[in-house]
Structures are given as C-alpha cells and as structure tokens.
Amino acid sequence: MTGNTKDQIGKLLTEKSREFSGNNRIELTAKNIGDDLYISRNLASQYLNELVKEEKAVKINSWPICFLSREELEKNYRVHLEKITYQSFEELLDVLEQTGTRDFARAIGYNGSLGYCIEQCKSAIGYPGHGIPILLCGENGVGKNFLVQLMFEYAVNREVVPKEEEVVWMNCSDYQNKPEKFRELLAVQQGKRLMVFENLDRLPPEEQELLLPLLTEGLDERGRRLVFTASEKTERKILDSLLRQIPIVLQIPSLDERSPEEREELIVSCFYKESLKLHKDIYISKRVLQAFMNYHFEGNIRQFRNSIAICCANALMRQNGEHIQVMLYHLSEDMIASLPMAEEKTEDETLIPIRGYQHENGLDSYFNILSQILNQFEQLETEKNWNDFVKQSYYCVKGYYDYLVFRKIYANGKLKAVQMVVEDVIGSVSKKYNITLSTNWGIVITRLIYQQIQNYVQISGWEEQHKKELNYLEHRLTENFPKAALVVKDLAKAVRDNLDLDPGISARILLTLEIMQYDRDIHENDMYGLIICHGYSTASSIADSVNEILDSRVFEAIDMPLDSNVVEVVQNVKRHIRNLPGIKNLLLLTDTGSLEDIDIRLDDVSNINIGIINNVSTALALEVGSRMLQREEPEQIIREAVLAGNPKGRLIKKVQKEAAIIFVSESGIRSAERMKKLFDESMPRILPIQSIVYDYYDLVKNQESAEIFQKYDVLCMIGVFNPKLKEVPFIALEDMISGNSLERLEGIFRNYLNEEEIQQFESNFLKNFTLENVVQYLTILNAPALLNMVEAAMQTLQKHMHRQLGGRTICGLYIHICCLIERLVTKAEITSVEYENFENEHREFIDMMQSSFEEICSHYGVKLPIGEIAYVYDYIKNDNREEEF
Fold first, then answer.
1. Which of 280, 457, 661, 718 is the most exposed place for a label (fewest CB within 10 A)?
2. What's the pTM?
3. Residues 98-133 pLDDT 10s
4. How far apart are CA 39 and CA 12, in angstroms?
C-alpha cells in the first residue's frame, strides 16, 4: 500500500507539473495532494519529502511549501536542475528560464553575498540604449573579471547586445608606464560598443582624462557600454571628474567576507573542476575542508583556487588507487600551521567524496523548518491544541539544531568569542527567571546567533516576505506562554546590548519554543516578588542576599529614601507591573510606616492579585522566597509567613478586567467614533484591547466613578479636551498629530506588540494622523478648504488678542473649530452648557471671536453660539505660553 500511495503521489505530481509556467504557478502543497488522494496532509508530506530526497521532486520553500516534478520541469524547460530545493518560485523560474545558459546564476553566492552586486550589474548592462557605466572595486582575486564576463553573457542571453559583438578588454596596468601606447590603442578602439578597462586605478591621471569623452559622448542611438574595474580605494587613485560620470560603483566582497555556506560551495566547486581535469574522483578529509574554510588567503579566490590545484597535484603524486585522496599533509605548511588542534571528540576519519557531494545549505534547512512551523501553526488555529503544536515544532527544530551543532563547519575564533558572550547572557537570564538552560542550549543559541550574523540579509529578506504570519505566531506564543516570551525578550535585549545584533523574529520564535521544551512549567511561574523599604539601600541589600542564598533571582528591590514621596514609589511599582506581562500574583514585602497601606494606592491595578507582607527582614524574605520557588499559592505563603513571626499579611484579589482605550470628544459621540476608526486603522493587527467610544460629559461629571472603569482596565483616554481624571492618562489629539504622543502610545502597546509591529504602528500612525487627514475623518466637510478658512480666522483672532498661541494649542483649536463648524452646519450644537456669566464677563473676547470668524460663518451660513465661544476661551486659557488673559 505504501508503494502504491507514493507512486500515486508521484504520478499526480507529474500530471500537475505539466501545467506549470511563469504565468501559471501551480501550488502543489501537501494539503492539496492529500485532499486529491484522500490521505492525511502529514502522510502526503512524508512521501513528498521522500521524493525530494530521491531527487524526483523539486521543493519550493514558499509559504505554504510547494512541490513539483523534477523530470517534468527539466523536460519542459530543457535544462538540468542541479538544485532540488528553492527558496521561492522566483528563484526556480530564474534558473528555468536561463535555458541552460545561466550567466549570473553560475556565480557562487549570486543569491547571497553577491546578490546586490549582481542586481546592479544587470541594471547597468541591461539598461536600454547604451547601458549605464559601472565600476567594480575589490581586492585582487575576488572575481571582478569573472563578473564582467557574466555581465556580457547576461546581455547576450537577454538579447541586449548581439552575440557576435566584440568586447574590447584593456588592462590599464599594462600601460602604467606607457602612456603613449595607451593613447594609440584608445584611438583605435574608441569606436567599439563594448569596452572593459581593467585596473583603472593604475592608469595615470592624464590618461584617465582621455576616458571622459567616452562617458559623455555617445556613438549613436545604441551608444556604448563601459565597464571599469579597480583594486585600490577609488577616492585615492581615480579622478573625481571621472567618478562623477560613473553612476554605479560596486564593492565586491573579499573571500573572508563570504558566508560559510558560500565558502564551502567554492571549495567543492574548485575540487570538482580539478577532478574533471584529472579524470579521477577526489576525496578530501574533513580537516582539509576545515583548513580551506578557516585559512586567510591574501589573494582571495585566485590564491584559494591555486592552493586547491597544488594540493591535488601533491596528492596525485602519492596516489595508490583509482581515486585521489587529499589529506591534511598535502596542504602547504602555512595552512597546516594555521589550523587549530583537533578536539578528540570531533575526530572522524571518513573522507568526503567530491563527486556527488550534497552541500548542506543551512539557510535552506532554516527556512524549511520555519515554513513547517507556520504550516503547523495554521493547523493549530483550527484544532487549538498548543501542546501538540509545541511538541511537533520541537521535532522540526531538533534536526536543524543537530546540523548547527554537529555538522556545520565554523571559523572557530569568531564563534568562540560569540559563545563567551552568550554564556554570560544565559547565566544572567537563567538566574533571573529561575530556569535551567543547559550547556547544550547555550551552544545552540550561539550557533543560531552566529548564523544571523553570517546571513543577515537573506534571513531578513525571508522574514520580510513572511512578516504577517511570523508576527501573528509570535503574538499568539506571547499570549499563551508569556513567561517564556519574557525570557526570550530579555535574552534578545542582552544579545542586542552586547553584540550589536538584534535577533530577528524567526530566531525569537525558535528560542521561545526551545525554552518551552527545556522548562515545561515556565509558563506556570506567574508570581513576582518585590521588596520595598525605607533607606538608601535597605531593600536592595535584603533582595541581593536572599537571591544569592537561593541561587535564583526571586526578588527585585525598590529603595525608598526617608524623605521620598510614597506616590513616587507607587508609580515605580506600577512600572514594574507594566513590564511583566503574564504575571498574575505580586508579593510585596514592605517595612513599617507609610508603606503598610500601599495596596490602597494600588487599587487601580487590575488583573493582578497583590499580596502584602509587612515588617520585612532578611529571614522573612528568605522564607517567602523559598516558598515562591516551590510554587506555593500566595495565600499559603502569606499565611505561613504570618505564623512564623509577627508580620502582618493580606492578599487582595483583583477582578479580571479587559484592557481598553477610550475615545472621547466634547463634539459628540460621532466625532469620537471617527477618531476611534482612524486609530484602529493604524494598528498592525487586532489586539486584546478594546477600543471604546465614551461620553465625554459623563467622564467630566463622574470622573473615576464612571461606569466604564468598573468593567474595563482603561489604559488611556484619547480626545481633544481633557476630562482631567487623576489616575487615567489622557492623550490629546493635537499631540498625536505633532507626534509628541508617539512614545507614550508605544509604551502602552509594548506589552502587546513586538519590535517589528511597533515600527509598523509608528509608520501607520505618522501616515494617518496628519492634521488634514484627521479633519477629513472627523468632519463631513471639505477638509482642505475648511482648514484654510479656519487658519485665516485664527490668525485674525491672535492679532485681535495681541498674542501668539503655542503650536499645540493652535493644532487643538483647528480640530475643535472644524468639528464645531460641522456641528453648526448639521444643527448639532451643544445646548447643555450654562454660559450666562461668561457672556457678561467676557464680552470683549466674544466680539473678537465673532469678528475673526465672520467670513467662515458667512460661507457656511452659521452663527457662533456663546457656548461654543466659551469652549474656545477655555482652551486658549490653558495655553502655556501666557497667563490667563
């Protein structure tokens, strides 16, 4: 049955792949094939991956992962596919559509370290008309001439230039001391359409000037294509006047700057070419491979290639069998001496066959397991079984970690330096969160971070391509495993601070899953200890002593100077709480005095049970900390602490409230609803925070006693006029428009959004909350025209008052008055405000307002009511530029 099912999958793959083309990208996923053959997705995936291993199927690591028949692709496109795994359909099509002449695809690293350079080369040589002059810079032996050859090969394949067109190569170093010879040759060749000037930096300045006409004067409508190369730094050796005429200047990476994967591929490629020359199979030892991976070649790829040829020649002289075995003693003395001593546990006498060598592409494996995890997560969203998801994801990751630790070859010096930093970071984080992260895990995270360093561009590109799915997965992991996510957040921050490397979202997801596997109960540890005492360092001394004795960071500390304000301490406690997502129980150990009743001042903190134990001492903290490590319930801890001595203790259980942001407007509910809609559109995704429109006047009247605060944990209020509630932060709409509130909003969302989502929110926010856009949302009138008239009226009003209002006040008034005009037009003015005294006391201001807004009132056919003028007066009165007028 197994054979029949697998054969059926192969047959279906062949039939479907016949329809594949650049315009018809058939998505043959494990799920689609499983549905067609009435088998499970997992079984289909198993057989498909077996076909890939047998090189009968091609795998595309898109999302979801797709498969195609290799035989059908090769038959239809008349090519031989050397690879069977591709990162995208674009990469596959790029190879297929070369029809055997791959030009740039022949360059190792064409989709890696050379990717940007090659894209620029394509742009330069393929630009319509005469192309774009280009200069390739780099050390000797990096492959500049090879790239130039590929440029012209690409131009011929794309039919940009005729195949028979002659390419003129002029090596400027040959004419360094023969300027007359160069002038003569240039005069003969300057009519050619394809010209290459090698080592431009070796040409004397006088002769460099002769090249300027070639760059500024075209032959005809077809023009000429010019390519230059240089080995030295261009600013020192090439004329500025010449450089200004060369739009594209590229720096080709040295061999040391290539990724380990590319370097390994270069080694195998060079040995394979020697094998073809000698008509013999070549085998190399793992130490030889390691030597070529680590050695610094001054002459870059040229010296690298020559060294391989020499060691093959040395091995050939000592050949005993039909094939050649290249061992470490066949290498040069310098290479042997530079190789570190082998560790006993890594010795392996197995030789590596060059023919048929399958290069293990770490990035392919990395992207593959991430795609599998995303596929499993998609299934999880239907089945809701997180335990199965964590287990299956770990199985996916484990094989890749084995590759990172045991099979991948590294440049040891740099890796060890990274590992030393990582070990310190892991030790600190493990102690802080009382979790056990083994030595092996430290090796894994080191390799993972090192991979990020080596392949930052490729990994960042993949993450950008799958940004939406990765962000949502990280969000759901944080929701379900908040403590594990918090540990990873601290790890990422420590790595960023110590290595100047920000671990990407894919690494953070893998680390979260790995931590869950190492410490399965980590998400259950939802208790946090905080010691607060009077004195310069009393609390810190107790916390440090207890943490050291318990060998775990159980307590944090807040030292309260004797003359400090308790309100400041309460705010400090609240900041600690905000930075601890997922914490359900907080144990506060305080000394006597004003701190005994601190829980009263924390009454507005919701969703966290707060335990208070007074009369703290080192012995008491040690007892409480021990019980916290044993995961005892907070009630039990407090009860035992009271029985053991004479402290007072109590537990205040908080009602679970849903987080919310409320939108208010003195202009009415409709304006608040529009404000809410604009804000919601700025969010990168739906959050577990309610956006609620609420009556402004109810807040003014009832303050913190308003009904909404009984039901919701209100994070902030957003509006134009401030209801002035003491405990709830208010964010003014004018501050949002100016960008001044962005940092405060990011602080609120920091526990709900990751770094990438914060950046997306910031981008959306700055785009949406412009003055014109806000007015457009809040009113039904023509926003640009309305704003122009309001601006003119406000300028007149400021002249009448003989004062210049602050930018914040001006912005707020623009919004309020635009809404005011709309309400007057729609007959929705405010009638509930008493303004009789205002009319008697501020007649002069009323006259100034009516005079300043005469034109706009006439245009819209409205009249400013005294109540509305009173609102404007109150707003101006609060302007911080001057005292009350």
1. 457
2. 0.45
3. 544 467 877 888 767 787 888 889 888 888 777 889
4. 13
* Residue 605 burial (CB count, 10 A): 18
Q: List phi, psi (to 5°) of 162.
A: -65, 150
Residue 690 tokens, joined: 């309610």
> Are 708 and 862 within 8 A, CB to CB?
no
CB 438 within 8 A of CB 427: no
Burial call 640-660: b when 16+ CB within 10 Å, e when fewer: ebeeeeebebebeebeeeebb
Phi, psi of 527 (to 5 degrees): -110, 145
Residues 6+ apart with CB under 8 A from 287: 327, 328, 339, 342
Number of H helices, E strands in the chain: 42, 20
The Cα 526–Cα 534 span in angstroms is 27
The DSSP code for 160 is S
In residues, how long is the chain? 885
Write the CA distances from 584 to 38, 228, 234, 557, 628, integer angstroms. Answer: 46, 66, 61, 19, 13
Q: Give per-residue pLDDT as tens, 11-63.
A: 899 888 877 876 677 788 988 898 888 888 888 888 998 899 888 899 998 87
Phi and psi at 199, nearest 5°, equal: 50, 50
Pairing of strands 282-284, 352-353: antiparallel
Which of helix, strand or coil describes residue 63?
A: coil
Helix (H, G, I), strand (E, B) or coil at 233: coil
Q: How far apart are CA 76 and CA 74, in angstroms?
A: 6
Res 399 pLDDT > 70: no
- Quickly count: other Cβ atoms within 10 Å of residue 556's Cβ: 17
Which H/E stretch holds residue 555?
strand 555-560
DSSP states of 13-26: HHHHHTT-BTTB--
Instruction: Give the max Cα distance, the chain.
Output: 115
Report the candidate in 592, 585, 711, 607 with the shortest Cα–Cα distance to residue 651: 585
| ω into 64 cis (within 30 of 0) | yes
CA distance 328 to 341: 12
Burial classification of residue 318, based on how many CB atoms lie within 10 Å of its CB (0-12 exposed, 13-18 middle, 19 or more buried): exposed
Q: What is the mean pLDDT of the chain?
A: 79
E-assigned strand segments in 12-166: 57-60, 66-69, 85-86, 134-137
Q: How far is CA 789 from CA 157, 280, 785, 817, 822, in A?
A: 61, 87, 6, 11, 13
DSSP letter, residue 597: G
Question: Residue 682 has which token pair?
Answer: 């700025």
Identify the pLDDT of residue 523: 43
> Residue 330 carries which DSSP code?
G
pLDDT tens readout for residues 755-772 = 777 777 777 777 777 766
Secondary structure in 3-state letters for 712-735: EEEEEEEECCCCCCCCCCEEEHHH
Q: Are 759 and 502 spatial neighbours (Cβ–Cβ below 8 Å)? A: no
Give the Cα separation of 814 and 489 in Å (integer): 42
Cβ atoms 146, 238 nearer than 8 A: no
Residues 623-681 pLDDT 10s: 898 888 888 888 888 888 877 765 666 655 555 677 889 998 877 777 788 788 888 88
